[in-house]
Amino acid sequence: MISQSHRITATLFLAGFCLILLQFFMIREISAILRGTEIVILLVTVSYFAGYSIGYYLSAWFSLPGLRLLAIVFWLLHITLPFSLRYYSALLHEQSPGFSFAFVLFFAMFLLSSFYSILLPWFLDRSGAGLTLARLYGAELAGAFFGAIFALTMGGAPMALPMLYQISLAGVVYMLLPHRAMAAALALGLVAYGASFQTLERASLEAHFIKSLHFQKAQPLMSVNSPYQKVDFVRSGLTEKTYIFLDGNMNFGSTSLESFNTFLSLLPARLIHPKEALIIGAGSLQSLRNVAPLAGHVDVVEIDQAIVEGSRRFLNHINRLETISNWSLTIEDAKNYLGSTAKAYDLIIVDVPAPLTIQVGLLHSVEFYSLARSRLKPNGVLSISLSGTFSETAITPRTVAAAALAVFPQIFLVVPNIPGRSFIMAGENIPFGQKEIETESAMLSPKKTTVYDKAQAQLIVGDTKPISLSNVRHPVVRSLNLVRGRYITGEAP
Amino acid sequence: MIHRVYAVGFGLYFGLAQTAYFFQMEILLTAAYTGFITATLAWIGGALTGLLMPRWLAGEESLALGLSAWHGAGLAAYYMALALLVWFPYDFSLLPVYCLLIMVSGAQAGHFFRANQNYFPSAASLFLMENNGFILGWLGGFGGFVAFGVGFNQVAPLALSAPLIPILLLYARACEASHTPETRP
User: Which of A133, A305, A467 would you mutate first to test chain B, the one with the most B CBs within 10 A?
Assistant: First the structure.
């Protein structure tokens, strides 16, 4: 029989454990449901922390029976996560994306963390001698410490974090209601959760992709919480094409994205035939397939192992990795890799998503391009995407181009007649000219391609400010516009 | 009133310090999870240390002295980390040093709750005020970085300390003047 004080300490340890797991797997889940951009991640995180304040505020209102009742209600709600939230948001999204957005944020604020934050002040303000703040808050922090270790080491296994969370939550509920009947109910709930996880996971993801992301049929292949983002590989049941979604945003899959890799990687590789090439961002690994046959050796740097694993398993028909031997993979942050390697490259390809978060935005910054320039050989070339069609009215392509223009003495801006696509090849002494780019582009794509030199590009970019360490506004503004367009005005897809 | 201002103010400082650490580590060390896990675990470990440290180290003889000393230590640790990141960018061998420095900053947060627990009418009010400030600090740290870039991270913790120190001293004087800490209901 454990003493009351040990029971309370254990409750708070488990509460801390649950809170940090929620922070890792549910915040990411919610961000993916709302198609995580910087503003979405900010709103979800702030809602989660606001839930703490709500719990602290409410703690004085609950008697012990009230707290026990709340624990049961909370358990019944949370044992349906993350599936129920996907279903509810998908159903609401069908009616109105704005309602869905508001509902999910309401959930994050009131129904995610608030119960756990009731517990610490509730016990402190009612307990007798011996249960000090140091002991109880210490127990909660210790739970959070171990929770963080589990979350970061086990996040790659799809079922691990949700199951661990459910076990810990059941522990919290049992500590508050230590009865045999409750133990039996909790055990039954855990068995049912474990047994139905795969089915519900698949079905709720299907609902999300169909109702929220407008797939006609969807077959989820892989869905994991990596340490960085929610990574989903999904196959369209209609076209049989495989898509990559990162935090709910499409990273690979559309025809336009395939031609993206043709211009980003194949075109410069054919023009240079690099001895040493570097690809930053693995994605589908299609860039690797494009470059490897034309290069001596290719280094691929990717921060997220989950993307590489998914691409190996589900995009083999795109990357044909078994046919490529002249490459090596480094799992690392690109900034750190470039900042610490002594290697110099003939070609560096930056194959990263559009700047919708500050972290990705920094890979489109003046400082990052300067770092990349320092790792280019004298005739080396940097190839980047401008994340949109280059024109006087397109802010993102002009912002990305402004950073490249600020760093490189020589630039060619390549604009194929494909919606949403434009590219830059930059260097100090580029070993080919405008004419060669036009000729090679014509061989790769039937669409007409326009090539601008630095002076022409500069005229269109005008005084647009690039992303830099002293100016990271662009990803936030773009993210804000997307949220407004997707959930308020309905103008953005 | 001074109790609320003090708790919200220091919550704001902790939120801001966390975001500043996070952005600086991400930019000048790594955005990989090794940096993130170091920062997270070191902050939590530091907070635990601050809660459980011996009385002499917590400076419990004088509330004003203990709180000021730990604020100074947390701030100094932050600026040492900042300087090392600028002088030795992308140098992973310094990770244990960053871990230690973040722990010192986290220890201030743990010490904050330990030192102030008896001067608030309830634990709930202390945690509520601090967390409200933390959210504001988190938003402020994010907004400041977006508006002013890394320059904000270099200035903000010190600039925020300028009004916080007099608030801390006023608060400590109010607590010590009441002789006995407020008892919880």
Answer: A133
Nearest chain B residue to A340, by CA:
B90
Strands of the sheet with A423-427, listed across from one edge = A327-331, A297-302, A276-280, A345-350, A376-385, A423-427, A410-416, A449-453
Alpha-helical runs (H) found in A409-470: 434-444, 454-461
Number of independent structural domains in chain B: 1
CB A462, CB A399: distance < 8 Å: no
Contact B123 A124 (CB under 8 A): yes
Question: Domain range spanning residue B119?
Answer: 2-178
Tell me the C-alpha to C-alpha distance, in Å, between residue A77 and each of A107, A189, A208, A302, B110: 11, 12, 19, 37, 32
Which residues have a Cβ under 8 Å from the Cβ of A120 and sit 6 or more positions away? A12, A15, A59, A136, A137, A140, B123, B127
Q: Residue B48 falls within a domain, yes or no?
A: yes
φ, ψ for residue A362 (rounded to 5)? Answer: -70, -15
Tell me which chain B residues have a C-beta less than 8 angstroms from the C-beta of A473: 146-147
The Cα diameter of chain A in Å comes to 83
Q: Given an 8 Å threshold on Cβ–Cβ distance, is B36 in contact with A227?
A: yes
- What is residue A226's predicted lDDT score, i.e. its pLDDT? 84
Q: Is residue B185 part of a domain?
A: no
From the centroid of its chain, how far is CA A26? 13
Chain centre distance of CA A59: 34
pLDDT tens for each residue of A322-361:
999 999 999 999 999 999 999 999 999 999 988 888 889 9
Residue B72 lies in a domain: yes
How many C-beta atoms lie closer than 10 Å to residue A132's C-beta? 14
Cβ-Cβ contacts under 8 Å for A323 (sequence gap 6 or more): none
**At A465, phi and psi to the nearest 5?**
-85, 130
By residue count, chain B amounts to 185
**Cα gap A168→A144, rounded to integer Å:** 12
For residue A50, which of A105, A13, A88 has the smallest C-alpha distance?
A: A105
Q: Cα(A444)–Cα(A441) distance, rounded to whole angstroms?
A: 5
Domain membership flag for residue B184: no
Give pTM, 2 decimals: 0.88
Residues within 8 A of B (CB atoms), A 374-393 only: none
User: Is the Cβ–Cβ distance between B46 and B100 less than 8 Å?
Assistant: no
> Distance (Å, rounded) from C-alpha A236 to C-alpha A210?
10
pLDDT tens track for A140-174: 999 999 999 988 888 777 788 999 999 999 999 99
What is the gyration radius of the CA atoms in chain A, in angstroms?
25
CA distances from A391 to A386, A394, A466 (A): 11, 5, 16
Residues A437, A420: Cα–Cα separation, whole Å: 19
